[in-house]
Amino acid sequence: MNPQLFLEGMSHAACTVSVLTTDGPDGRAGITISAMTSVSADPPTLLVCVHHLSSTCQKIINNGIFCVNVLSEDQSFISDTFAGRIDTPPINSVVQTGLLTVQEHRI
Fold it and tell me: Which pTM was predicted?
């Protein structure tokens, strides 16, 4: 399959957008993700995909904890901030209010 056709087709797939954040001894970091799914309710387990070369990836591993903030449709400014599309972030905390759900997990 042509990679461009694949990307175009996948751009129409419905998915949630989340912000994955971490804070701890290695510092605070966050990244916008769309690759997140539940694996199990018992024990509560999520699968999230973060590129291994992302500057956030090593902080998540070193801190050993992350928080998935599932955004609502009207919170695109949050995903834009963590995706680097907004220069001055309007966000002052790791966990935001008004989200659809917040899930904190340990690695």
Answer: 0.70
